[in-house]
Specification:
The chain is mainly beta. The protein has helices at 2-10, 307-311; strands at residues 24-25, 30-31, 47-48, 53-54, 76-77, 83-84, 100-101, 107-108, 124-125, 130-131, 147-148, 151-152, 168-169, 175-176, 199-200, 205-206, 222-223, 229-230, 247-250, 255-263, 275-282, 285-296, 299-305, 315-324, 330-341. Among the domains are: 2-31, no CATH class; 114-156, no CATH class; 159-210, no CATH class; 247-341, Immunoglobulins (Immunoglobulin-like, Sandwich), CATH 2.60.40.
Length: 359
């Protein structure tokens, strides 16, 4: 121990003026005299004593300065620039548009995100919460030379003179070929002259001629190609009819349902919603009976009479069937002669019609 003391006493020691006040050292042969100031005596914000203390003396009214947590990093401030801000915040251009943030909400974001309809198809953005919807065609799907997605299309579209006559092509079939490679001039009929839905001219044209069905064509009338179809439409269908439009009834009989009826011969107007009146004129009087629309395909009207109504009729009458259409127009659908007899055997079937009656 004595040896250690001798060596230590012979060694170099810090001057007592450089050692903290009251600290004994050199085997208690020396005592420090370095007297540190109190924090109240050191300028505000100045660190000392191995950075374990910070001065509180406000000599420049710096007590009113913001704390470092309120100043952006790395801004220095104070009379001696002794303070450095440690508050970090994002720039407004990096914060979503409209978002208010920062100390006391003093900043507003300016970052404007695109809408999904403005972003390429399937591209995710905004933290994968959104996905682009723009479908960009390939260059192989775009006409040659047309700009597309930082490139140009490479689809070559022929000119009309290089496409077969009447063949539609191009965007939305807006072009039509004019090349006639048949050796003769192609003289196609118009669509108005070709049967409905029949394609011709290489599929470029379609017919729109509607051919009526037999039930819409007068009975026995032959039509269509080579007269291969015969009409079946009868202008009258009820049993009392003597000729096409003349008919006979028996006084005192009931005529119900469609016993007396007329069908459209192809010349009637649209009678949907019409009011039908059947008028009998004869013997100096006119008697009207309501008609009924009893069919639509083809249109048909019927006359229904009770035995009381037929009992007052006698001999021959002129009649007509009139329709007051939904628009107010009055149209005569059928006209002719009607005979009211006492019994079905009063007048022989082959008896001549009275003078003035249709033959």
């Amino acid at each position: 121990m004595g040896i250690y003391a001798n060596v230590f006493l012979d060694g170099d020691h810090a001057a007592d003026t450089d050692v903290r006040l009251g600290v004994d050292y050199a085997n208690a042969t020396l005592t420090g005299k370095l007297d540190l100031p109190a924090i109240a005596d050191v300028r505000l914000g100045v660190d000392f004593d191995n950075a374990t203390k910070t001065g509180l003396l406000d000599v420049d009214d710096e007590a009113n300065l913001p704390t470092t947590t309120d100043v952006l990093e790395p801004v220095t401030y104070g009379s001696l620039l002794q303070f450095t801000g440690d508050y970090f915040t994002a720039f407004t251009q990096d914060v979503r548009l409209g978002v208010i943030y920062g100390k006391t909400n003093g900043s507003t974001g300016l970052l404007d995100l695109p809408a999904a309809v403005d972003v390429r198809l399937a591209v995710e953005f905004d933290q994968t919460t959104k996905i682009g919807l723009i479908a960009v065609p390939l260059t192989t799907e775009v006409t040659l030379g047309v700009a597309i997605d930082q490139d140009v299309g490479n689809v070559r579209v022929p000119i009309e003179a290089d496409v077969r006559l009447l063949v539609l092509f191009g965007p939305n079939d807006t072009l039509i070929g004019s090349l006639d490679d048949s050796g003769d001039v192609c003289n196609y009929p118009g669509s108005a002259d070709v049967r409905l839905d029949v394609d011709f001219a290489g599929g470029a044209l379609t017919g729109n001629v509607r051919v009526p069905t037999p039930d819409k064509v007068e009975s026995e009338f032959q039509y269509d190609t080579l007269d291969l179809i015969t009409g079946t439409l009868l202008s009258t269908i009820a049993s009392p009819f003597l000729t096409d439009d003349d008919f006979e009834i028996v006084r005192g009989d009931d005529y119900v349902e469609d016993d007396i009826s007329w069908q459209d011969d192809g010349r009637w107007p649209d009678i949907t919603g019409a009011t039908i009146i059947v008028g009998f004129v004869g013997r100096g009087t006119k008697t009207e009976f309501p008609g009924v629309i009893t069919g639509t395909a083809p249109p048909q009207v019927s006359l229904r009479l009770t035995k009381e109504e037929t009992a007052i009729l006698r001999d021959w009458y002129d009649y007509d069937v009139q329709a007051t259409l939904s628009g107010g127009e009055v149209k005569t659908l059928v006209s002719g002669r009607v005979r009211a007899s006492d019994t079905e055997t009063d007048i022989p079937p082959d008896s001549p019609l009275p003078p003035g009656s249709p033959a």
